[in-house]
Design a protein that fits this description.
Blueprint: H1 22-35, E1 44-45, H2 47-54, H3 58-70, E2 74-77, E3 81-84, H4 92-110, H5 116-131, H6 135-150, H7 156-180, H8 183-198, H9 202-224, H10 228-232
Antiparallel strand pairs: 1-3, 2-3
Length: 235
């Protein structure tokens, strides 16, 4: 019988990891491998296997897995341990409803504190998305654009919750954006949103953000109900 390839073999470790950096290195390495698909949905990540791979004790591995679980990239399942989460968890409409609440509040708090440099940075992400053909990169740039607009909100816990949601969206878009045809629409939305933010118009900015996210959930829900999505869920 042919033995299935071990997904962990796709992860390359360059030399010993300093003890004080172990948790952060393990977290970022596994996060990247989950986002780019090297660790597919449903992959079980056993603490001892990871400790052997990274050449560390199980303690930093355990801490890294907790962080990834908090970011909705892993689920802890009885008798299996940590398992790479599905591309979309739960009801898409409920997920976006929560995002609208959180991101609208962060945008309200952030706009008065944004600088010209922040606006320029956000505009740069839009330009990069406009010319980018790599859908994985578009997902990353989309996350960075939104987080730039929210970045000055003083509530750090709020921002962490928002980034967790954007991480989940980025992972989904990496595999499905081309099939969904969201590219051009998203850029028009982004440009309108950035103009309102630059004008300091909080109410219009929140309204445009809400419309943008609502359009997103409509397209995602429609895609998930389509036959094409069946294969995507197996990634």
């Amino acid at each position: 019988m042919t033995q299935k390839p071990n997904p962990l073999n796709s992860i390359q470790i360059d030399g010993p990891i300093p003890a004080h950096l172990a948790r952060a290195v393990i977290e970022e390495t596994l996060r990247s491998a989950i986002l780019d698909g090297r660790l597919p949905c449903g992959t079980a990540l056993r603490q001892q296997d990871l400790a052997d791979l990274f050449g560390v004790s199980r303690m930093p591995v355990r801490e890294a897995l907790r962080q990834l679980e908090a970011q909705a990239l892993l689920n802890v399942i009885a008798h299996k341990g940590a398992v790479v989460a599905p591309l979309v968890q739960g009801d898409a409409a409920e997920t976006y409803e929560l995002r609208i609440l959180l991101e609208s509040e962060a945008l309200r708090r952030s706009i008065p504190l944004l600088t010209d440099a922040d606006i320029e940075l956000a505009a740069g992400y839009i330009e990069e998305m406009e010319t980018q053909n790599d859908y994985s990169e578009i997902g990353r740039l989309n996350r960075l654009f939104h987080m730039t607009l929210y970045s000055k909100a003083p509530n750090r816990r709020l921002l962490r919750l928002i980034e967790d949601g954007l991480n989940e969206e980025e992972r989904f878009l990496r595999f499905n954006l081309e099939k969904m045809g969201l590219g051009k629409l998203s850029q028009e939305d982004h440009r309108d949103l950035l103009r309102a933010v630059e004008d300091g118009d909080i109410e219009r900015s929140v309204k445009l953000l809400t419309q943008h996210l609502n359009r997103g959930v409509e397209v995602v829900a429609r895609f998930l109900d389509s036959p094409v999505a069946i294969n995507s869920k197996k990634i």
